Each structure stands twice: as C-alpha cells, then as structure tokens.
Amino acid sequence: MTIDFTGTTALVTGASSGLGASFATQLAQRGADVVLVARRDGRLRELAERIEREHGVRATPIALDLARPDAHTRLRGELEERGIRIDTLINNAGFGVKGAFVDADPARIAEMVQLDVAAVVALTREFLPDLVRSGRGALVNLASTAAYQPCPDMAVYGASKAFVLSFTEAIAYETRESGLRVLTLSPGATRTEFFDVVGTENAAVGRFQSPSQVVSLALRRLDGRRTPASIVSGRANALTSTLVRFLPRRLALAISGRVLAEPAR
Predict the structure, then answer these.
(1) Which of UniProt's keywords are assigned here (predicted)?
(2) 9-261 is classed in which CATH architecture?
(3) Domains of the chain: which residue ranges?
C-alpha cells in the first residue's frame, strides 16, 4: 500500500544535495509539500523552485546551520511564523571525517557530534509529538553501514551512526501503537558530496548506489504493511551488516580496520 502524502508536509534536512534532495523530490512527486533545510541558501532556492515547477507542491527553503545547538528551536520558530506544521521528518544532514582520532581537529569533531548526534536527537524530540498526532507521515533517520561495526580511522562517525541506529529503533518501538512509521535507513557508499567532505573515496566500502536508489528503497519499505525499524540499502551491504553481527567483536574490528586503511583504488 503506497502512502498518500497529499496534503502533508515533509521536513528534509541536508536537502541541498544528494540524499536530502532526492528525498525532497520523491516526496514531492507523491504530493507532499516540502520544507528544505540546509546551510546553502542558493541551492535550496533552486531546488525549491524546481520542485514547485515540476510537481505543483509548496516547497519552502530555510537556510540554517543545524550544527548550532539552538537550531531546532530556531527552525520551530521559522515554521510557526509561516504557519507550517510537519507530518514527516527526514533527518538526513550529517558528515564524516577520515583519519586517526589522535590527529583529528577537536573543533571539527565537536561539530560532527553536534550535527550527526545532538541535532538528530533535538529535531526528533522537537517534532515527534507533531508527527505522532498527525499519524499520516514518517520519521526517517539516516544512519549508515558504518553503524554495524567499529570504524577505525572514522571512529566518531561510525559511533555516531551506531547511536542513530539504536536511538531510532528504540523510537520505533515506543511509537509502535501510533500511526507513525519510523525507519532507520543505513546506506552504504552513495554518489553524494559526502566523500568530497571526507576528502577521499577510500572511506567507501562496496559498490556505489545513486541517491535515487537509496531513497526509493526507503519509501518502498515505508509503504509496507509493517515498516521495519531499520534497513540497509543494497543487497551486499545488507548481507555484510547481518554477517558482522555473528563475528567475534575483535574480528569485526580487525576486518573493519584493514578495509578502511586500504589505499584508494
């Protein structure tokens, strides 16, 4: 059964490119108005104009740095001023860095924790009551295949995504009696700007997917009679993420360390 998003509003973070832009576009195709949140105002406005022109829905761009500790309250204020209520929340914004933790820039690490963990929690808490009351939409939090094992050379990123996976699965259980569909989406390597920020594709494991492939899978799973609490995008990724659970922790760590330390191919 396909979810009817007509007459609902979806808030998508990290919407200026990649998975966020694809989520916004596919939700608009299904009739949802969309709120696009990211730092790059120009890109947001271009995407909003294209979505409105091609899909006939309302697209509202809001330029905001979600790494600010008060971002969730600022965003709530912006929406209230515009009279917008949210039915679906896609927490997609985030980034990673690669390299030994001992050499990492403390400010960059703090920014990553704020965006990848604290902002996800704050935005989920801010809007979850609205989503539950509506019962017509979904909550999707973006994790990663990095969530399923420790990630040497990407220690904080992997740990942040493990947090998102655990956190969102728990929320899915807590809200199971409501009409809200809650999903943790864990992509593998995806053709987005993520690796431009990381600085190397050496952080990529497995075959690349397109943003459209990943988002289409997420929406198909949301359409099902029973939404799973979490999914991994890509068959090989899903198999690997399942198998690693049966390995001794020490072995999984050693394999992950070797894979992530391999030179770029």
Answers:
(1) Oxidoreductase
(2) 3-Layer(aba) Sandwich (3.40)
(3) 9-261
